[in-house]
Each structure stands twice: as structure tokens, then as C-alpha cells.
Amino acid sequence: MSNIEISELRASSTTCEMLSGLLIETVANGGSVSFMHPLQPEAAGAFWSNALAAATRGERMVMGAWDGERLVGTVTLLLDCPPNQPHRAEIAKLMTRLSHRRRGVAASLMQTAENLAVKRGRTLLVLDTATDGGASTLYERLGFTLAGEIPDYAFKPHGGLSGTRIYWKRIGEHVPTED
In the chain, what are the domain boundaries? Predict the structure, then answer.
């Protein structure tokens, strides 16, 4: 993975197009990332256009993993939490191209997201992943704790229901609870 570089993504038509291609590939190969197969390019483009606009407003951060000029992975750090939850952030849309899986790309994206959350004063990360074919092993290896599992939470991209596992991780200097 020595040639992979991670950077924050900014709104542009080229970035949106690359992210859309990655999303379409992920969904076509069974990735449970909120979309059904076949995912139309217009729907993928609309999602990323809105996500990048939210990033411009500071509501989230979209990170990209690059192998040269090719976008090979992404993760989103959701920062726009309710007023009573300014200490947490949520991980979303972790995706890696099939050609780059099992090469440390996802782990590097997750570490970058965690570091960025800490820099923004966040002390708790949460995420969810599909029970069937999700990234539970990765998240547990990275120190996330399973909070629980919800059965039949969402449809898989090619049909059929899958449960969802909810994870959390304390990061940075966590705020002590008041008794």
C-alpha cells in the first residue's frame, strides 16, 4: 500500500464522477451502502453532489484514497450532530475498489477519519455495518466495540434482508460523564 495517499475531497464534477463510479462498483458487488442494484449514475451523482456540498458547509468530511490518479477508496466522517451530541461523529460510506481490497486501504481511511475526528474535539465514533458481508472484522480489529445487532434492518443491494451491527469507539480525550 506504499503508493496510496489519502486526502480530503472537494466538490468538483471530476471528484463527483470518480466517487459515483466507486459507489456503483461497490453496490454492484453487494456492498450495503444504502443503495440498491442496479444503481444509476444519475442517482450516484446526486448523492455525491449533495454529500460534497455538505462537506463544503463543514457538516462532514469526505476522504479519498488515491493510487496515483485513481480514486480507490473513500470514507465519510459525519460531523453535523444534534446540539446534545457535539462530542461524537459518525463513520459512513467506507468503500474500497475490488482491485485494492485487503491492501490496508480501508484501515488507512478509518485511521485518517479517526484522527480528523480527534482534531475536531470528538471523543466518540459510531458506525454501522451490514451483518451479511459487512466489515465487522475490520472494525473490531480497529478497536470498535459492538453495541448490538438489529435484525432485518435493510435490504441487501441485490435483494433480501440483512441485519445491521452498531459499533462505537472512544477516541481522543473522552469527556467524563457527570453523576
Answer: 4-127
For range 23-28, the mean pLDDT: 98
For the whole prediction, is pTM greater than 0.85? yes
- 173 pLDDT tier (thresholds 50, 70, 90): confident
For residues 45 and 16, the answer to whether their CB atoms sit within 8 Å is yes
> What Cα–Cα distance (Å) separates residue 17 from each residue in 9, 33, 61, 169?
12, 17, 17, 32
Q: Is residue 178's pLDDT more than 60?
A: no
Rounded distance between C-alpha atoms, residue 7 and residue 28, angstroms: 25
Q: What share of the chain is helix, strand, coil (3-state, %, to 5)?
A: 30, 35, 35
What's domain 4-127's architecture? 3-Layer(aba) Sandwich (3.40)
End-to-end distance of the chain based on CA atoms, in angstroms?
A: 46
Three-state DSSP state, 21: helix
Q: What would the grid cell of residue 125 be?
A: 465514533
